[in-house]
Amino acid sequence: MQFSGVVVTGDSLKPIPFVSIIIKNSYRGTISDYNGFFSFVAQLNDTIEFSSIGFKKSYYVIPDTLDTDRYSLIKMLSRDTVFLQE
Predict the structure, then answer these.
(1) 2 three-class SS
(2) 10 vs 27: CA distance, rounded Å
(3) What is the rounded CA–CA span in Å between residue 76 and residue 29?
(4) Predicted pLDDT at 80
(5) Whose CA is closest to 48, among 19, 23, 78, 20?
(6) Is the pTM higher than 0.70?
(7) CA distance 58 to 67
(8) Strands 47-51 and 20-23
(9) N or C end: fewer C-beta atoms under 10 angstroms in the chain?
(10) Residue 76: in which H helix or E strand, if any?
(11) pLDDT tens per residue across all 86 residues of the chain
(12) Closest alpha carbon to 53 in 14, 18, 5
């Protein structure tokens, strides 16, 4: 199936460019473009990992009950703040 969507920030809903989007336990995936858009071929019941510097990793499982060959998603990532010692 064709899996596509947009990755945005959880607080301001602005698109996040260049997010790594990978099917867990495989080497297949893609990177979102400058506007946060992505699209690639995936299977039903795949676990998709979204990761980007400055944001917490997030996972999404494609439902196995779909009866269509296209699926879209708006994925929100929350910021990950790390404080370093002086």
Answers:
(1) strand
(2) 27
(3) 18
(4) 87
(5) 23
(6) yes
(7) 25
(8) antiparallel
(9) C
(10) strand 70-77
(11) 999 999 999 888 999 999 999 999 888 999 999 999 999 999 999 999 999 998 999 999 999 898 889 999 999 999 988 777 88
(12) 18
Burial of 86 (0-12, 13-18, 19+ CB in 10 A): exposed
pLDDT of residue 85: 85
Between the alpha carbon of residue 68 and those of residues 23, 38, 81, the distances in Å are 20, 18, 38
Task: Name the nearest CA neighbour of 19 among 10, 30, 29, 32.
Answer: 32
Measured in residues, the chain has a length of 86
Q: How far is CA 34 from CA 1, 19, 85, in A?
A: 24, 9, 33
- Enter the tokens of residue 8: 């945005």
Residue 86's pLDDT is 82
